[in-house]
Structures
1.
Amino acid sequence: MSYFTDESGRLHVVDAEDNATPVFAKVSGGVLHCMVRCTDEATFDAVGLSVGLLTHENEGSAEVLDEEGNVVQEAVAPSGAIIPSKGNTVTRIGPHVITPAVLDEDGNELVPAVVDSRFHANFWIPASSEWEELIVEWANHGTAGASNGSESAVSHQGIELIDPLSVTTPHNVLL
């Protein structure tokens, strides 16, 4: 697979048959950047673990058998904190303030903030055909997500991939 960015900044992934699929992600310097949100952090962790974005601090190990099929070493389940897999960067944002609160000169709240209470995260991963295939799957099999203001998103496996071109004020960027 390959990719290109069109004149508007939209990323397109090109398959072996030269079919270009527009996707909600950015690639810069060989790094794929995605902004996502979902109902809660547990959903993000479950999907992140299943696709290899995340791993457990202690990865665990498979059962070891001898030539006769006897267990030499029991399997050890993964454990510990859930962290980004090697080479990946994940920023856990959590709830997102859509509109900040309005305060008076004494700091008293006049108008409460508008908050999207869903879990938000950004991630940066090495651009590779494996991940390009995943975001193409998201684009081709996802459904329209709920928007915040001008934002657009596509939902797949319980996670919404946010269109970076629709975000007017990103809250987390790597320089």
2.
Amino acid sequence: MTLLSSTIYFVLGFLLAYLFPRMPGILITRGKGFNVNFPPHPESIPLTPYLTQRVLHMRMFYWLGLVAAIIPLAFGLISLRWGNVPFGFGLWLSSGWFILSRLQSFMGGPKPPWTLDVAERLQIIINDSKSDDSACCNFSSPEWLLTGVYCSVCSKELENMPRPDLGRKRSDGFFMGFIRLLSSDGHPMFESNSKNYDTDLGQAEE
């Protein structure tokens, strides 16, 4: 086997293992039937129980990636022992790195873009908007914009919480949207300016 062919097999194995555990969260949620209760991307999303449920669904897909990563990891180890070594090493290296990157959130690393804490914050805002003592106005209608949660009636910021990817079909097209999602791993394109929010999110229950 030549150096060129070995390199090609390694890169192929690496890319396959890189994409495989991310595909369920990227593809399954983009279906039309999965988004009937949401406006098209990138429009703001009204805060409803459907949105809270979507955050929990995205959180589930995020952690199911660990289970999916076991498949290319196992095939990589098998290929290292009995098959194409460069291909197997690419599979093993990429899937192993994916698993480590997911597990590092338990050891002080970056937190997932979708957490139980985020879902709880959204639900608290929904409950507050329906109460008599609303935080903004008498006709509170909270929406999740790119940079945070705002009232669509009085434009008051209700939560400094940048919006992560929520599984909608992206307006920038399949290819560019796919590249953007792979590079960001679903994290918001904006950073929060609130130190309290960052601190609380770091303590979120996973």
3.
Amino acid sequence: MLMAIGKGIELDVDVSRFNTEVHDHLLRTGLRNLLMDAHASATAKADPENYIKRSREMAERKLASLYAGVVRAQSFGGPKASADPVAMVILRLARKAVISRSEVAAASNADRLATINRLAAEYAKEHDVQLRPRAEKIVALENDQAEPAPVRKHQAMPTRKNRAA
């Protein structure tokens, strides 16, 4: 497994060489960090009465998303776009379509991104059939998989040599 550790350094890690103790420690540490990150935004300052309950709910949602096979999920607004490039382009097109809606304009600054993400996810789901062919073309173009456009030879532009003054 190629592991990026920062500063442009990548190490090739053979996880099969770890004994059971090391493997379990890495799993505990990594899983604990993921679950801690998932509930870090629920603070006593933001919600003094319910922050522990909210923290537990957020951590449980993260664990449920991991069980469901979703590695990266937002703490609100549903799961992020999948790693499928076509699905990501569909979501990008959906965001452009919903960005000017009144619900987005009415949302507070703190809720604006969550509102955009929620509306875009709904739009993408409802309009998948219409958006998918366009998204596939965009992905092909971004990956240079599309056939290049035919090259037209430039013809000399006609000029007026004897202009009347």
